[in-house]
Design a protein that fits this description.
mainly beta, Lipocalin, five-stranded mixed sheet, globular
Length: 353
């Protein structure tokens, strides 16, 4: 959990907290006590330490995408801490630091591998030493495509989203790339089967085993602008497995603003959907995406805003992407604005959806 707007250190310098979760947590009313409070070793005004966080075992990673590094304004940093003591383990910086690179915008960690995304590339580091392991480059790099906007890893597979990429003339249609975690070698480049202007394919990505989920929250469905979709792909060859869509498609519903997957179960957030007349109340949808037949299909949710009780075993940590009645949700991430608007696209649409 992060609080990048905490002002006790410096304006938007940020702070992150580590909590010990020892039992079923979905329906508890009391907040568990924090083990440690983490702050940046280099606190800066507007550094936004805590904008992204991830944890694996006793290692916690915290991104500070707006921190300046040397002479590079807002180049960004990421930090690895001992999750139990708060001791700094390593500071990670972009091997190719640049002005406004926003390295650390998205972080993930699996074991001792940390993947950090920024404005242009994603990188795999050794979490304990800070040594660079691999660079995950976009095969068709474009200015402002935002490769590294979203990242995910499972085993030897890394997925990197570039939601602002121009595809076949469609501005902000977006792409995502699957690559080898150890070498950075490209496995497949993914595109939306429903290519659209402002589709934002790659806004959020997730991977578990052989399944990759990529969202496109800006895609229109019927007459519903930005209703959103999500797609499931084979992580080994990039073939489409399934198309996911809301059963309550709405304009600006942004289905796919956040996604997660574990095994054959995926969860997709639709933060902009209205619920019982309450605008932007939001929903989350749970899907069984385990492929059972060849080809692709459009799936409906197993349950909206509900978590199977079988998931709530002692010691389990449940992180979901929406608030359900009687439950909690641990996600509060503001959406990054686009850097510019193509001149051939109407500017009437908000750039800070």
């Amino acid at each position: 959990m992060s609080a990048f707007a905490n002002r006790r250190s410096a304006l938007l310098a940020g702070v992150a907290f580590v909590f010990l979760l020892t039992g079923p947590i979905l329906l508890v009313s009391a907040q568990p006590p924090a083990i440690v409070s983490l702050t940046s070793p280099n606190p800066q005004p507007n550094g936004e330490f805590g904008y992204s966080v991830a944890i694996s075992g006793n290692l916690a990673v915290v991104g500070a995408p707006e921190e300046s590094v040397g002479r590079y304004t807002q180049a960004g940093s990421a930090y690895v801490f001992n999750a139990q003591t708060g001791a700094l383990v390593a500071q990670l910086v972009d091997p190719d630091s640049q002005y406004y690179g926003e390295f650390g915008y998205y972080v993930t960690i699996i074991g001792s591998d940390v993947v950090v995304g920024g404005d242009g590339n994603a990188y795999t580091f050794n979490a304990r030493t800070g040594a660079l392991i691999a660079v995950h480059q976009s095969p068709n790099s474009q200015d402002s495509e935002e490769a590294g906007y979203s990242v995910a890893q499972s085993g030897d597979v890394v997925v990197v989203g570039a939601p602002f990429a121009n595809v076949s003339g469609d501005a902000y249609a977006g792409t995502a790339n699957i690559s080898n975690a150890a070498t950075g070698a490209l496995i497949a480049t993914l595109q939306s089967p429903n290519l659209q202007y402002f589709g934002d394919f790659g806004e959020s990505v997730a991977v578990s085993g052989r399944l990759v989920v990529v969202s496109a929250p800006g895609e229109a469905i019927g007459g519903n602008s930005s209703a959103g979709r999500a797609y499931v792909f084979n992580a080994q060859n990039g073939t489409l497995v399934a198309t996911l869509a809301s059963t309550n498609p709405q304009g600006d519903g942004n289905f796919g603003l956040s996604v997660a997957i574990s095994g054959g179960v995926a969860i997709v957030g639709a933060a902009g959907e209205a619920v019982n007349g309450e605008e932007y109340a939001g929903r989350a949808y749970i899907f069984n995406v385990a492929p059972t037949t060849a080809g692709s299909s459009t799936l409906t949710e197993e349950g909206a805003g509900s978590i199977p009780t079988s998931w709530l075993t002692a010691g389990a940590v449940v992180v979901v992407v929406a608030v359900a009645a009687g439950g909690v949700l641990l996600s509060a991430r503001r959406r990054r604005p686009r850097l510019s608007t193509p001149t051939h696209v109407s500017t009437a649409r908000s750039e800070n959806r």
